[in-house]
What we know:
Blueprint: H1 33-52, H2 57-62, H3 66-69, H4 74-77, H5 83-99, H6 104-130, H7 142-148, H8 165-183, H9 189-209, H10 212-218, H11 223-237, H12 242-263, H13 277-295, H14 306-335, H15 340-375
Helix pairs in contact: 1-5, 1-14, 5-8, 5-11, 5-13, 6-14, 6-15, 9-10, 9-11, 9-12, 11-12, 11-13, 12-13, 14-15
Amino acid sequence: MTVTGTTTVPQPASGPEAPAAPPSPRPAAARLYALDGLRLIAALMVAAYHYGGRDGEVSHAWGTSPRTQFPSLHGWFAYGCLGVQIFFVISGFVICMSGWGRPLRSFFASRVSRLFPAYWVAIVLVTGVFALPVVAYHAVSPSDALVNLTMLQQPLGVDRVLGVCWTLWAELRFYALFALCVVLPGATRHRVVLFCAVWTLAAALAQGSGEPLLDLALMPEYAPFFIGGVGLYLVHRDRRDMTAWGIVAVSWLIGQHYAVDRLWHAPNPDFFSNRSSYGIIAVVTLGFFAVAAIALGWTRWADWRWLTVAGALTYPFYLVHEHLGWVVIEALHRKAGLPSSVTFAGTVGAMLLLAWLLNRYVEEWATPALRKALNRTRRAA
Length: 381
């Protein structure tokens, strides 16, 4: 969810006169525009869930439950939370691409520079807005806000500034596992396959053991989605790789189980809405299928350059849309008296505009500057 850019795999030279290729070459870059578009779709799914697919603080923003605001749509919006699982599949795909043939220092620099500049600004922005007297939402303490800048607030038990940051904590753990097991020793197909197989088995054992530390490190609930994305990147490199297809199939089977187990409940009129098990399976399947279609090259026709902009807006939009969206919804609906549908569209538009500003005036200069600083080799003493 937090990375942009993908690659296609060049065909190696062959024959007696072909030069020897270095081990595990990094593929030449060729952007998969459809992946950028899919990332924005997943972010909009999550926004629909936060604005109209759940109760909680957003009910205060609307003045009533979103079920009242969107009587025919709230049940559909409730499936938007599965955009997170789609993000994780995309992340597995792109992180495998990003780490292939890249030294650990470069991989670390690319992840830190991609994640933190917009995140830091979002933390400061949300904390500042919530601290305003006219805003009726609770701001975290100054100490907790400072801890949030590390992105480690969740394991430290600190109040979160951004509700969505729990997904970033999952991403960080995936990055650490992939860096230690694949990037550090050097990415090869064999090593990536072994990583996927061992993590799948270890996550199942962690679930069965009920050991909190293993659960924290191995993330059984989310591992299948990251692993499925990694498997789909192997498919992207070689669509005839049956082992890679096996990784994807097993990941889908386990992933849909966890999604249904966590998100389904028996119909109950006291609950906000009911997601059917078939609906959950369908959304998870569509997410895997969409990334698979991109991996197989079926979406090469979608080479519209505006999709690059869509991909660039996704991460900052994801960061700011929930909490600042409450403020905008209250201003447009309760104070300005705009209809629910207009408020919904206006809030999404406002958050996309803010995301563009963050990308244009923060990420475009801060990301390369931070990456360059982290990649700079220390001079010998």
